[in-house]
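Hi,

Apologies if this is the wrong queue. I'm a grad student, and the batch job for Endonuclease III from Mariniflexile ostreae produced an output file that my downstream script rejects. I'm not sure whether the problem is my script or the file. Here is the sequence I used:
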Amino acid sequence: MTKKESVNFIINTLYKIYPEIPIPLDHKDPYTLLIAVLLSAQSTDVRVNQITPLLFEVADNPYDMIKLSVEDIRDIIRPVGLSPMKSKGIHGLSHILIDKHDGKVPQSFEALEELPAVGHKTASVVMSQAFGVPAFPVDTHIHRLMYRWNLSNGKNVVQTEKDAKRLFPKELWNELHLQIIWYGRQYSPARGWDLEKDIITKTIGRKSVLNAYYKAKKS
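Support response: The file is valid. Your script probably expects a header line. Output copied below for reference.
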C-alpha cells in the first residue's frame, strides 16, 4: 500500500469500529475538562474519572477552586499521582483565569499554554474537545500507533504530531485522534498485544515491527 492508501484504510477502519466516539474524560464545561486533562498526565482516564467528581463536588469553577488551599486540592487528587505539581498548577491557573480571563478558559493555544502545568498536549485536547478547534493531541497510544503504522519515525511526540497533521485531513483531526486512542487501548496496546486482533497494524504495519512481533512469538 502507498502511504495515501494506508491513511485511507486507517480512516475507513476506524470509522467502522467507532462511528460514535466517546470522550474519555468526564467533564461538563471547558474548565472541568481543563482540570481533568491536567490530572490525566501520567495517570489513567479511569483513575481521573474516579477523582474528579470528588474535586468538582467541592470546586467546579475557578472561583471556588481558589477558596481551597493547595494542600486541600492535593489531598483530594493524591491518587492520580504527581499531586504536588498538579495541585499547584490547578490553584495557580484558577487564579490566572480569574485575573486575566474573567474566570473563563481562553480559546487559544498560546493563552492556554501560558497557564501553569498546561503543556501543548493539554491545550490541544481543550481546544479540540471544548471548543471544536482542529487539533491533534498526541498521547502514548497515538505515538505508538503512528510508529507501528509506519506513519512517523517514533523519535518524539512533536514529530508524531507534525506527521499526523500532514497525513490526515484537518476536518477529521478532532474525531480521529480519539478513535486512534480507543483503538490503541483495545486492539494495539503496548503490553499483551495480539496482532491477530489488530487488523490495522496487521494490514499496513511497519515491517520491522511485524517481524519483531513474530520473532518474539516464536521464542
